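peptide chain release factor N(5)-glutamine methyltransferase, pasting as requested.
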Amino acid sequence: MSKIDTLKSLRIWAAETAPEERPEDIAFLLAERLQLSPSEFQLKQDMELTPQQVKQAQNDVRKLAKGISPQYILGYSWFFGYKILVKRGVLIPRFETEELVEWTLQDLANGDKVLDLGTGSGCITVALAKEAAKKQITNLDLYASDVTDAALRTSEENFLIHKVDVTVRKANILIGLEKFDKIISNPPYIKETEKDVMDQNVLQNEPKEALFGGKNGIEFYQKFVKQVRDHLNSGGEFFLEFGFSEKDQLADLFAQELPDFTIEFKKDLAGKPRMVKGKWNK
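Structure tokens follow.
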């Protein structure tokens, strides 16, 4: 291989070194390290690199070739335009979840007590708090819960960095928590049977308890519906993400277990049913 001293030569080397990896993952990793926007990354192919930049990039790409996710290599991800720290043991924020935050923001009111259930990195709470402030929605009482210590530590770090005041609780679903006006969650919903078709990077790196929702993918929701009335204030709402193939099962479950709730399903930008809102008619 000829000398690596420009972005173009680095990209050629990276593609040869990590042939199994997705080109967009390589591009994201290199662009972030070089502090280039996606468009700059495409336009600045002749950009000269320092030996230190080349060395760092080579180390990164070798880790990527071993199957480590780019966000874990960098130590952060982006969510709603906010830089969110992530590490092994914490789910990497997903673009689709931004739509769940958008939907919740539409119903958020001054003084609402809000729970981010299964907070993971804390990305939902950070985005919700920051975006609510932009809309002059104030005095939110924010809570974030998770079942793992790794997630709670990472979320607290993110709340500190983004100067968001949050009460953090360790809890399995809603057990032991108080009552809220809004509950928002991106829970585990992947079916055990879907392991075979999943990205190996995800399986290798991300926490199983944040991904898998039991044999049929709806284990979380089956427990949630039994507990939710004890943890919502009158007229309270929940906003949940789910796997697009689970809509019919969930519609049946909510109709059976939550007849006193108004249930609304929403499609994501790709046109697939991915979110559900429940409002307690009490």
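Note for the archive: The radius of gyration is 21 Å.
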